[in-house]
Queue: 2 jobs
Job 1
Amino acid sequence: AQKITQTQPGMFVQEKEAVTLDCTYDTSDPSYGLFWYKQPSSGEMIFLIYQGSYDQQNATEGRYSLNFQKARKSANLVISASQLGDSAMYFCAMREGAGANNLFFGTGTRLTVIP
Amino acid sequence: DSGVTQTPKHLITATGQRVTLRCSPRSGDLSVYWYQQSLDQGLQFLIQYYNGEERAKGNILERFSAQQFPDLHSELNLSSLELGDSALYFCASSAGLAGASSSYNEQFFGPGTRLTVL
């Protein structure tokens, strides 16, 4: 089974609107971390936000927030007030298990912001 | 700029050849990770080194090897190259190791090396 599933290959959003990018994960380990990365067309991977499995509150970083629903095993990324520069690939990733370090990535969602 | 540097930026070579990709982690980071991003396999973890020692292994082929040197830079060696090895190879670094409670230990990615095997 896939550890990280991103079911939206592509998404469009109007500039200044909010958008939600979906991510579900699969693990039986109670200790894990969830990450979102942005990959613009230039290719670099930019860290956006992190949520630990034991964190009580949803993570927020500026215009990014993570809608963490543990029972549903989902960790959706919400981008508020979209900007043209948000157009990029977005990857959800998981680090599984206490002491583990490597990341499992989803297949990504290509977000296009329309002016 | 993440502070992680990778050289070269682009590499074009022929099947059967051997190449070496180099990574310098952020200052002070002890962990180095290698990832491969290809069209058919997506982003895959290859291997992790921590302070010179191999820490974790992912989907790394036997034709590939890596090491981390005393100055903490790392090299990924790819040999007997095949067309399917064409990919973007990322190096990432983090301060240390994730703790017992899935602590943060954010990974910072380098710009990648784009390998094309002809």
Job 2
Amino acid sequence: AQKVTQAQTEISVVEKEDVTLDCVYETRDTTYYLFWYKQPPSGELVFLIRRNSFDEQNEISGRYSWNFQKSTSSFNFTITASQVVDSAVYFCALSEGNFNKFYFGSGTKLNVKP
Amino acid sequence: KAGVTQTPRYLIKTRGQQVTLSCSPISGHRSVSWYQQTPGQGLQFLFEYFSETQRNKGNFPGRFSGRQFSNSRSEMNVSTLELGDSALYLCASSLADTSTDTQYFGPGTRLTVL
């Protein structure tokens, strides 16, 4: 079974629209970490955010916000007022316990059109 | 601070050959992880090295091996290349002294097997 599911394969929006990328995870561990990465066409994965299982506080960073809900095993990512530069593939990842081993979702390709 | 560097950036090999990829982590990072990214399988964990020892391992055949040097630089080797080994190979480094930690990725090495 997939440990991280990103059901949205590709999303297209027009600039300035808000968009939410979904991430659902599965783990039996009580201690785990969740991450979001952005992969632009250049290929390099860029770290966006990290959350541990004991911190359900939502976070906002500029136009980016994250909603972590343990009750639904979800860690969703919202971009407000999207811009063309946000176009990329976004990955959600899970790491369990003390193992520095990431399980990645299949990614969501975001296309922001001008 | 310089980021993670990987060499070479591009490689073309033929079936049956072997290849060695190199990764230099962020200064001070002692953990280096390797991932394979393909369109079909997505991002998959290969292995992680910490202080010259393999600490975590993914589900890849023994043709995939790695090592880490005392300066934390790491190499990954793939022997007897197969067409299916064509992929983007990403290296990531982190502090991860005692547990999971944020991984910072390099630009990747794109390997093409003909």
